[in-house]
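Handover notes (outgoing to incoming on-call)

Open items:
1. PilZ domain-containing protein: sequence verified, structure written out, both below. Nothing else pending on this one.
2. Nothing else urgent.
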Amino acid sequence: MVNHRWGRRHKLASDVRIYIGGEKIADGIVRNISYSGICIDIAKKASPIHGFIDIVLEHNAKNEHDIHVHGMIVRSTKNSIAVMF
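PilZ domain-containing protein structure tokens:
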């Protein structure tokens, strides 16, 4: 199996909200993140592979802003998605 990752993965447990076209479709928890993408555990299948989504990573520190990123789903299972930035 070929590893297509551009960066090293880092474990992270952060709540996220997932949107398509401005509409919230799911909540999730980040499993890991890298320079080039993110893996998110979700309760339901979010979108087809190659679909574009917006992700909001919730920042729990006081007086900090949430982080907004746009990406493409490159892998989707019943309980998780992998998104490339």
